Here is the input.
Amino acid sequence: MGLTLRGFCRQNGLDVGNMSKIERGLLDPPKTRAAQDRLAQALRLQEATEEWREFLELAAISAGRIPESVMNDEELAPKLPLLFRAVNGQPLTEKKLRELAELMRRS
Here is the structure.
């Protein structure tokens, strides 16, 4: 956009200190959907595009939440416990490992 952080914040009515902390990972991104939408619009992300969805997913993940897109996916949501076990290093059966590999291939 060709703006400094200060210029971006001034143009969009955002607090430069908070935005700087978000950029540096010292502050979580906005938690409410309304605040996320406002920030996405300020970044000129078009609603319902892949970039918009990715922005919302990354905001949820960085706040320690599972993205809505995952929770609403009827095929993926039931597989979350399997993924969490794998991430936590808990033993998985051969069948469960194949399921996890297949799930990752489709993503």
